[in-house]
């Protein structure tokens, strides 16, 4: 803390000159300074215990005089005289900042000799994240690197974690090799140094992968009654659905006595009034920019086995991905 001097009386000038002399004379034999730790933004109270034998007293920061007796020498408005009695001489520094850190000396004169009492002010700064990777979208099998930078005093620790999977990793850099769809989600950077509550920020990783049909359901209904065929697929980005009859004729909603309803992960064909021409094989095709997957299902007459028909077919791209994963595993068996 730099403290330019104000104009004061000749009497206080004498106190100041004495304080500087005492400071120089006593630096050779004063005991080690006590540490006084505060957090950035808090107030710091510096107290000096004296008695009625003290004739002159002053507070100094390094060699700069802050207060001499009741006279203020620092022009910093945050520095104020708090207590000036026969037993205590104290000042307060409000809204402490890192620049205030350093050695503070209370210098006082009794009838027989000079004395000093010193304290070293340590200013701690709460951990704070100053830079973090942006959210990212990648294809399954890619490598992902996330970085989180934080500052603080003392030096903060940094931890990456994914709460949904119970995953955590120490350090500012998180490296994920050949990411899979189960590793998608929010990753949280947590930094802490014990000064205040941890600082946290999140990064979202989106993992694209080709469609995979997870559920199909045949239907069985007599002529004249309603029926529904259902197809559900998982994919990122969401799959687009198409329906085919007898593996070649694409179906259009609102024609041939049927309607098609589609949401993000499923699609259904609704027959409001089944006719004989509706019976047979249907194909659900789910696709996105990474590949496609299809599954066959049937609308059955009463008396036909309900579980016959449903088959699945995967696109060549997905077959390649599965082969690259399964073949190395089989070789280790």
UniProtKB/TrEMBL annotation:
SUPFAM superfamilies cross-referenced by the UniProt entry: Immunoglobulin
PROSITE patterns attached to this UniProt entry: IG_LIKE
Domain Ig-like: 31-116, 126-206, 211-300
GO MF annotations in UniProt: cell adhesion molecule binding
UniProt record, GO biological process: cell-cell adhesion
Keyword Glycosyltransferase on entry: no
Alphabetic keyword roster: Disulfide bond, Glycoprotein, Immunoglobulin domain, Repeat, Signal
Signal peptide per UniProt: 1-26
GO cellular component, one term: plasma membrane
Keyword set includes Phosphoprotein: no
Pfam family, one: V-set
Family: Belongs to the immunoglobulin superfamily. IgLON family.
Protein name as it appears in the record: IgLON family member 5
